[in-house]
Amino acid sequence: MSVSDLPALNATLNSISTLLLAAGFVFIKSERKTAHRNCMVGAFIVSCIFLVCYVLHKILVQGVHTPFGGEGFWRAFYYGMLISHIILAIAIVPLILVTMTHAIKGRFERHRAWARWTFPLWFYVSVTGVLIYFMLYEWFQKAA
Question: Which residues does 6 contact at the CB level (< 8 Å), separation at least 6?
Answer without folding.
Answer: 53, 54, 56, 57, 60
